[in-house]
Amino acid sequence: MNKRRKAVVAILSCAIIIGAFSFSTAIGSTSATTTSGLTLEDAKKVVAAAEAKAGEIGVPMNIAVVDVEGNLVAFERMDKAWLGSINIAINKAFTAVAFNMTTEELGKASQPEQSLFGIHATNDGRLVIFGGGIPLSKEDELVGAIGVSGGAVPQDIEVAEAGVKAFTPPAPTPKATPTPGFEAVFAMTGILAVAYLVLRRRRI
User: Fold this and answer.
1) Residue 157 to residues 56, 104, 153, Cα–Cα distance (Å)
2) Which domain covers residue 162, as residue numbers?
3) Mean pLDDT for each consecutive 10-residue tract of the chain (204 residues)?
């Protein structure tokens, strides 16, 4: 292999390596611009909407929002809300996210002679089987839940539903990034141009 051919092979190898690196970088930057899950800001919006509904119907409520793992993200106890409902609200949210269903639905399925009868005695007694706990989903993926307690069950459900309604995040939009492979094409074109000039000069 003569020196000219070796030079061409070396230059082309560099072009391929740089191009592959640029392509992978572009792909990585595109995927990194989207996020998922329940943020604190999301939870605050849910709580605020639920609080507004509770104020509208005139019933002070305890409102809890948990993430997909059941961890508390946001909680609010409205003035004069029942002290005993604090844990009930938190546990309603936990129950809803643990089974990905409303606590009302779980309650119906856990009645005598139903398939889940007795389930309320599991999970260290944290499960609540009456209405007021509702899952929160983003793009059909479970991300958390809201739990509300402080009024009659239909009131708890109404307030929780108001919180869920406020949780309508838009589909994540990737930030403007170069088309994957753009840097690769640019780099390879430049290197090939240099190789052409080198070979042309040698011929001269």
Assistant:
1) 14, 9, 6
2) 40-166
3) 58 55 48 62 97 98 97 98 98 98 97 94 95 95 97 98 86 56 59 62 57
Domain count, the chain: 2
- H or E stretch covering 67: strand 62-67
Q: Is the same domain home to 60 and 128?
A: yes
Q: Is 152 in the same domain as 184?
A: no
- Residue pair 8/195 in contact (Cβ under 8 Å)? The answer is yes
Both 102 and 189 in one domain: the answer is no
Edge to edge, the sheet with strand 141-149 lists: 72-77, 62-67, 141-149, 133-138
Q: State the pLDDT at residue 35.
A: 41
Q: What angle in degrees, to the nearest 10, is found between the helix axes of 40-57 and 153-166? A: 140
DSSP lists the bridge partners of residue 146 as 65, 134
Assign residue 71 the CATH number of its domain: 3.30.450.150
Task: Give residue 149's identity as a one-letter amino acid code.
Answer: S
pLDDT at residue 78 in the model: 98
Q: For residue 171, is it within any domain?
A: no
Question: Do residues 64 and 93 lie in contact, with contact meaning Cβ atoms separated by under 8 Å?
Answer: yes
pTM confidence score: 0.67
Tokens (6 digits) for 119: 């389930």
Q: Decide if 90 contacts 75 (C-beta within 8 A).
A: yes
